[in-house]
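Weekly sync, protein design subgroup
Attendees: M.S., D.O., the rotation student, P.L. (late)

Item 1: inverse folding check
M.S. brought a backbone from last month's batch and wanted to see whether the design step gives back something sensible before we order anything. D.O. pointed out we never logged the input encoding, so this time it goes straight into the notes. Structure tokens as presented (315 positions):
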């Protein structure tokens, strides 16, 4: 059953009426014309609503519990996926999942954050918030991709790196910096897609790529709106103001040159039709990899460096 966000209530009411009419039709009541009218009205209301989402509403959509996660993308897009665990220094971190598989006939390395889809899996994956060993695992996998000349696909979905004391004790900032450096140093193409939340250095650590793509209703930000509101105004209830002022939407970030392309989501967001959203993402990744496939390793690395060095110069 679909979970509705607060701002989706008008659409939820219409769709509830549609379901009532469908039940009546199943009992032999002739209401075909009324059912069609309500379906059209509901679809239009949904399209109009999602065409004008505020940054805070996009934040809510990006966090929707039914939005497809990393595991969904891997299951649908990556054949023969072999997960690789551990950082070879301390332990394995389930917040970051990575491994080798085949994408559209090409061997690739996949790295990304997994939030989990229910209470047990969210606890297992720490809600997608990685500790240092998660980023050190990412570095290990990127170095393996470099060794075997495998393109890297990063699927970003995290509120940020885990801010706990244990993570800080084991060098969280250093691990994030080394992961970012490893991504920038690769001589193989790397593609990042923000599929939900792209939060702070926890996202940048695996998203410093040749191409950075975002789903239409995802967000990419230096800090969560709640954290930013607490820092700026010492009032986390002003998260909506922070979301608006920080320019965290895909549309704003494309305009500023922070990302390279926006992937259109199905009407009602990726959670309304996960398979369609995943296939649209696959098409965008395939196109980006094709564009980069003709470049030499040094050209790939130089193009990535130039991309990041030029950010902010032409605003």
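Designed sequence read out in the meeting:
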């Amino acid at each position: 059953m679909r979970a509705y966000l607060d701002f989706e209530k008008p659409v939820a009411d219409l769709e509830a009426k549609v379901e009532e009419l469908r039940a009546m039709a199943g009992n032999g009541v002739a209401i075909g014309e009324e059912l069609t009218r309500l379906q059209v009205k509901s679809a239009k209301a949904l399209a109009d609503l999602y065409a004008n989402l505020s940054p805070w509403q996009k934040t809510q959509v990006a966090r929707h519990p039914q939005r497809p996660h990393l595991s969904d993308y891997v299951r649908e897009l990556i054949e023969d996926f072999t997960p690789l665990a551990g950082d070879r220094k301390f332990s394995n971190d389930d917040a970051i999942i990575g491994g080798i598989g085949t994408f559209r006939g090409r061997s690739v390395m996949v790295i990304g954050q997994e939030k989990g889809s229910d209470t047990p899996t969210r606890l297992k994956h720490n809600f997608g918030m990685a500790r240092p060993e998660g980023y050190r695992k990412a570095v290990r996998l990127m170095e393996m991709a470099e060794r075997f000349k495998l393109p890297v696909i990063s699927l970003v979905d995290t509120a940020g790196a885990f801010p706990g004391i244990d993570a800080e004790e084991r060098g969280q900032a250093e691990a994030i910096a080394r992961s970012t450096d490893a991504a920038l140093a690769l001589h193989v193409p790397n593609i990042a897609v923000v599929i939900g939340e792209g939060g702070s250095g926890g996202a940048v650590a695996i998203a410093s790529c040749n191409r950075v793509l975002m789903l239409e209703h995802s967000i990419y930000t230096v800090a969560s709106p709640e954290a930013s509101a607490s820092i700026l105004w010492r009032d986390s209830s002003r998260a909506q103001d922070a979301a608006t002022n920080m320019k965290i939407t895909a549309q704003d970030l494309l305009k500023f040159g922070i990302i390279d392309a926006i992937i259109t989501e199905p009407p009602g967001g990726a959670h309304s039709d996960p398979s369609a959203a995943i296939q649209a993402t696959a098409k965008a990744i395939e196109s980006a990899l094709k564009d980069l496939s003709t470049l030499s390793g040094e050209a790939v690395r130089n193009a990535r460096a130039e991309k990041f060095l030029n950010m902010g110069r032409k605003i």
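Discussion: The two ends are 44 Å apart (CA to CA). The longest strand covers residues 190-199.
Action: P.L. to compare against the previous round before Friday.
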